[in-house]
Amino acid sequence: MAEIRIDKEKCKSCMICVNVCPKKLIRVNDKYTNHAGNKYVEFIDEKNECLGCALCAISCPDMAIYEVLK
Fold this sequence. Notes:
alpha+beta, Alpha-Beta Plaits, two-stranded antiparallel ribbon, globular
């Protein structure tokens, strides 16, 4: 199985990954910003529902999302 990692400094909060995740496991955090002042997205999978499809990583225009094996 895989786990999604998000480089918060590269994230521009374009919301593409949020929209393509079939399990809706990615969302914009509402508290913190990165160095550019963007509220970056977070991957939250408390129930291990991620399919490992990597649609989020494939669709990210800034290459801020990558997948690692657990």
